[in-house]
Design brief:
single chain; globular; about 45% helix; 11 helices; 2-enoyl-CoA Hydratase, Chain A, domain 1; alpha/beta; 6-stranded mixed sheet
């Protein structure tokens, strides 16, 4: 599979496993990732989850070939992520819904590149550990598309308005030191050690009261309120309008 799940005691590890494309996401991978999250959310034996990428990269983001195909389909009247037959969310929507409402502690171990969704999923993680050579960016202004995954609101919550604006508007790379300094990550470790460190933290959390860790996460999500939901709705509306118009903005 291109998104793998395995258990390490009370810790579940979800691995984005498409290293030949630096773990770029296809629609099926979004669904697999979201379904894994929904699965472990309901399991009593899983207390905490770590997300990582295979082959030295976290994720290079959306598979741009598939994105172009979705844009072509949308311009013909097919709405991305919501097929005409059922109206049920698929792909990207499945993953974002699962991330947004995930009820247990969620950690990320980031090595190599974290681009697009590889970066915008990080605000949904409670703790992020980065390897020393990790680099991340959100290339929306470069690609001519709106922000995604609620990042138009959640990035500002993490790093402040001006820094979020600079990150979103310039599409520039952020290195591991800046990720920690800005609050995008908790800690930088030696290259190749992000997963090991994240697992150490996850095991420590997993030893604590499952009730307390769930309640802490629940209260923190409640404090965030509807910001991610509202931001996603605004972003997705713009994506749909842009794709129906034939693809990318000028």
């Amino acid at each position: 599979m291109s998104v793998d799940l395995h258990l390490d005691g009370s810790v579940a590890v979800i691995t984005i496993n498409r290293p030949e494309r630096k773990n770029a996401f296809t629609r099926s991978q979004y669904e697999a990732f979201g379904n894994h999250l929904s699965n472990v959310a309901s399991r009593d034996d899983v207390h905490v989850v770590v997300v990582t990428g295979a082959g030295g990269s976290f994720s290079s983001g959306q598979d741009l070939k598939e994105m172009a195909e979705l844009a072509d389909a949308a311009s013909s009247g097919v709405t991305p992520d919501r097929p005409d037959t059922s109206g049920t969310g698929t792909g990207f929507t499945v993953l974002l819904d699962a991330l947004q409402h995930f009820p247990k502690p969620l950690l990320a171990a980031v090595e190599g590149v974290a681009v697009g969704i590889g970066m915008t999923l990080l605000p949904y993680c409670d703790i992020v550990i980065v390897g020393s050579t990790a680099r991340m960016r959100v290339p929306f202004s470069e690609l001519g598309v709106p922000p995604e995954a609620g990042s138009s609101a959640l990035l500002a919550d993490l790093v402040g308005w001006q820094r979020a604006a600079e990150i979103l508007l310039t599409s520039r790379w952020i290195d591991a030191d800046d990720a920690v300094n800005y609050g995008l990550a908790l800690e930088k470790v030696d290259e190749g050690q992000a997963l090991s460190r994240a697992l150490d933290v996850a095991r420590t959390i997993g030893e604590k009261s499952p009730y307390s860790t769930r309640v802490i996460k629940q209260l923190m999500l409640a404090a965030r309120g509807s910001r991610s939901t509202d931001a996603r709705a605004r972003e997705e509306k713009l994506f749909t309008e842009l794709f129906r118009g034939g693809g990318y903005g000028g």
